[in-house]
Amino acid sequence: MKETRIIMGMPIEIEIIGEDTKKVFEDSFAYLVGIDERFSPYKETSEVSAINRGKRELAAASPLMQEVLAIAEQTRLTTKGYFDIRRPDGKLDPSGVVKGWAIKNVAELILRAGQENYFINVGGDIAMRGKDSERKEWSVGIRNPFNIKEIVKVVYPHGKGVATSGSYIRGAHIYNPHTPSESLDEIVSITVIGPDVLAADLMATASFAMGRSGIAFIESLEGFDGYAIDASGTATLTSGFAAYTEC
Fold first, then answer.
1. How many CB atoms lie within 10 A of CB 172?
2. Which of 20, 213, 218, 247 has its CA 20 to 30 A from that of 114?
3. CA dist., res. 128 & res. 162, Å (int)
4. Domain boundaries in the chain?
């Protein structure tokens, strides 16, 4: 069974291959709605908005917020500041952590419910496990950023997480925290395969912010591979990426 709902301002697609899936679908989508209510910087009633307005101190933030902030800080240090949830105006926008973190948590929720074959796609960030409806390996298509109807590469992540960062759908929503006023136009998309969807998402965002050097950063990380497309349409891939192009 496959179901898509609009949450977090984007279509969220969950497919579960199994029986008695109704409750786990409802639990999964309800969890995501709750996460959006807490973490959206665009909702006046969210905890993030309360913190940004000075109505709540960080020290008094909820355990979930503290968890997300800790992940963000560790990622900021790992990426030498290329990943930073603080906007140039100093306000918090944890969206770069929350999406991958929420997908990872939903995947664990589905697994705890006894469902071992699933595929979750939230805005190009993907978690999967097991086999599809034809008992085949799940596959992911990398879109041509210059023609999104075209798939330029099909990969078989074998249960690992996949995330794509780019400017070709949502526009310039990622910036280099070191030079926030400069546009990122060298790279138009980068797809990262990592140990899980959260790790892949964090590193995809950071590597995109690095521009042309981002793919080299992914190459340097153990357990990660990537596929970057630059403004001229040239693709650069890490040395281990080819392993994911075969079923």
1. 9
2. 247
3. 9
4. 2-244
Strand partners, 126: 121, 162
Q: Which two tokens stand for residue 121?
A: 């796609």
CA distance 28 to 244: 28
Is-contact 191 204, C-beta < 8 A? yes
Q: With beta carbons less than 8 A apart as the criterion, state whether 215 and 228 touch.
A: yes
For residue 102 the two structure tokens come to 């929420």
* Cα(75)–Cα(238) distance, integer angstroms: 21
The CATH classification number of 2-244 equals 3.10.520.10
Question: Across the chain, what does the average pLDDT equal?
Answer: 94
Tokens of 28: 């999964």
To the question of pTM greater than 0.90 for the whole model, the response is: yes
**Within 10 Å of residue 94's Cβ, how many Cβ atoms?**
22
Asked whether the predicted pLDDT for residue 181 surpasses 70, the reply is: no
Residue labelled with tokens 């000075």: 54
Distance between CA atoms of 27 and 24, rounded to whole angstroms? 5
